Amino acid sequence: MIKYIISLFLLYFLVLFQTSFLVDLFNLTFWVIIFWSFLEKKESDLAFFNALIGGFFLDIFSNNFIGFNIIILLTLTFLIKYLIRPHVKIPYVER
């Protein structure tokens, strides 16, 4: 439970930093969630929570409709965890 709360605050401050200083450079929150999906253990579902919360915070601070970033991040997390990781060997990532 504590991991979810820490993740919530971390993503909130990451999105605030991104929207304040890195407006058009690159999407830092997007990359953190993608890397988290690759590095997370197979049994854990924290990556889906991070995708949902990160997408929600990105949607709040963007001009797109609510749900746009949530759908993108949840889809990418699903593809990484269930399609890419079981079939592709990634160096330096423990299973």
Number of domains: 1
The amount of helix comes to 55-70%
Model regions low in confidence, pLDDT < 50 over at least 5 residues: none
Number of DSSP E strands? 0
Strand content: under 5%
Radius of gyration: 13 Å
Distance between the termini: 22 Å
Shape: globular
With helices defined by DSSP (H or I, 4 residues minimum), what is the helix count? 4
Largest β-sheet summary: none
Report the mean per-residue pLDDT as an integer. 85
Oligomer: single chain
Structural category: mainly alpha
Order of helices and strands: HHHH
Structural features:
95 residues; mainly alpha; globular
Task: Summarize this entry quickly.
The chain has helices at 2-21, 28-39, 46-60, 68-84. It is mainly alpha-helical and 95 residues long. Helix 3 (46-60) packs antiparallel against helix 4 (68-84).
Textual characterization of the structure:
By secondary structure, the protein is mainly alpha-helical. The chain has one domain. Helix content is 67%, strand content 0%. Helix 1 packs parallel to helix 3 and helix 3 packs antiparallel against helix 4. The chain is globular, with a radius of gyration of 13 Å. The model has no long low-confidence stretch (mean pLDDT 85).
